[in-house]
Amino acid sequence: MRDGRRTRAIARASVALVCAAVAAGALAQGRTTGREPADDATPRRGTERAMGARAGREVSLAAAGDVLAHGTVEATARRYASRGGYLYALGAVRASVESADVGFVNLETPLTTRYREVNTSRWPPTLGSDYGLERAISMTGFDVVSVANNHALDQTESGLAETVERLRAARLGAIGAGPTVDEAYGAWVVQPRGVRVAFVAFTHPMNPVGSVPARRVGTGARMYVARLWDQERVDAAIRRAREQADVVVVSVHWGGNEQAESVSRQQRRRARDMVEAGADVVLGHGPHRIHPVEEMESARGGALVAYSLGNLISNMGYRYRRGMRLTGMTHPSNGHPGNRDVVVLRVTARVSSEGRVEIGDVTADLYWTDNVAAGDIREVRVVPIRAMESPLREERETAMRAALGPRVQVTSPGR
Ligand SMILES: [Zn+2]
Fold it and tell me: Mind listing the pLDDT tens digit for each residue in 257-294?
C-alpha cells in the first residue's frame, strides 16, 4: 500500500472482534493473541469506503517471492547503510508494490542472529538477518509477510518468535506461524477499499538445523509452523478464512522441487484442492524459479494460481554470466539465471454484491538481481530489467514472459 495511506484493518481472522467491527462498518483492528493493538496514527484509507456500498468492489494485490538474506545480500545492506541498507538492495520494486492495495512477500530468513550461527555457504544454509530487513520490507510497500517456509526454524523457535514480533513492530502482518497451532494456521485480514482480504500460509519442507551450533539464548519459546502436509488442517484453515473475508489469498511454500523447471501434477492437485476449499488467489514459492500463472474456475467465479513467484532477493545464481554453460562444477542454485529473475505480480480481484470473485488484470513487472563484481567486492541489488544492457535484458525478458505464461501481461518498469 502507499505510504501514509495504509489501511490498518488488520486482525486475526479467527477473532470475533473482526466480524463485530466489520458488521459495525468500522475497520477492524485486533488480534487473537489478546494483546492490545499497536497505536496507529496512520490515516485509514478504507474507513469511508468500508461504510459505502458493497457492490462491485475491486482490490489489487502485489506479490513477490522469496527474500533470502544470504551473506552477500546482508553485506550489501551493511555497506549501503547510508543509502537505506536493505532498502538500497530491494527498494527498486517499491513502485510496483505501492501501486497495489495490498503487498505480499515470502520472508525466508529469520529476523535475528541470536540463536544459531548464520552460515550461508554450507548446504542447507542457516539463515538469519539482523539489519533492519523488516523495515525495508515495510517501506517497500509490503503489508503481509509469510514466514511459513523451510527456513522458518533456522534460528530455533525463539528466533521465529522474535521474527514475528519484529514484523509486527514494523506494522507487517505475519502469517504461517504462531505460538499456538490455531494462530499458525490462522488468517491475517486486511481491509483496503472496504474489501476484506484474508491471508493464510503453509509450507511443506522444513530444514534440519541440528548441525549448526546453537547459542542457547532463551530457547524457551514455543512456535508452530503451518504445514502443507496436514491437508485437513490446511483445508479447514482456508474454509475459516473464507468465512471471514471477501477474497482469500493462500501462500504456499512447496517442497522437494527447488530448481524445478515446471509445475508438478501434485502441485496442480493441491492448488485445485485449495481453490475448492475457498482460495481465490494461490501464491506459490519455493522452487526459486518463476512458474506459470493460471486461472481456474471456482465455485465463487474465478481463481488465480501463481505456481511459483521465484526469488525477490537472494545471492542465488551469482555465478551466472550470459553465454556461460552450466556444468557439473556449478550447482544450479549458483549458476542459473532463473534464480535472478524477479517479478512483482499484480492481480486485480473484483467482488460482486453476491460475493462472487472475478480475477481481472494480471500483470508482472520485471526486475533482475544485479550481482556485480567490483574488484573483490560483490553487491546484490534488485534493479528493473530495463536497467540492464542488451542482450541480457532481452534474454531475461523473454525467459520471464515464457515462464509466466499467457495469462500475465508483462511490463518493464523504468530505470
Ligand atoms: Zn524455501
Answer: 888 889 999 999 999 999 999 999 999 999 999 999 99
Question: Could you give the maximum distance between any two Cα atoms of the chain, in Å?
Answer: 62
| CATH class assigned to 11-411 | alpha beta
pLDDT band at 48 (very low <50, low <70, confident <90, very high): very low
Match 555457504 to its residue by C-alpha cell. Answer: 121
Distance from residue 284's CA to the centre of ligand 1 (Å) = 11
| Dist CA 260 CA 149 (whole Å) | 17
Half-sphere exposure for 45 (CA within 13 Å, toward CB): 16
Q: Which of 98, 278, 305 is nearest to 200 (CA)?
A: 278
What residue segments make up the domains of the chain, in order of their start? Answer: 11-411
Average pLDDT of span 345-373: 95
Mean pLDDT, residues 129-144 taken together: 97
Residue 253 CA to ligand 1 centre (angstroms)? 7
* 341-351 vs 57-67, strand pairing mode: antiparallel
Answer whether the bond into residue 179 is a cis peptide, omega within 30°. no
Q: How many CB atoms lie within 10 A of CB 348?
A: 17
Q: Judging by beta carbons within 10 Å of its beta carbon (0-12, 13-18, 19+), is residue 383 exposed, middle or buried?
A: middle
Model pTM score: 0.87
Cα 65 to ligand 1 centre (Å): 10
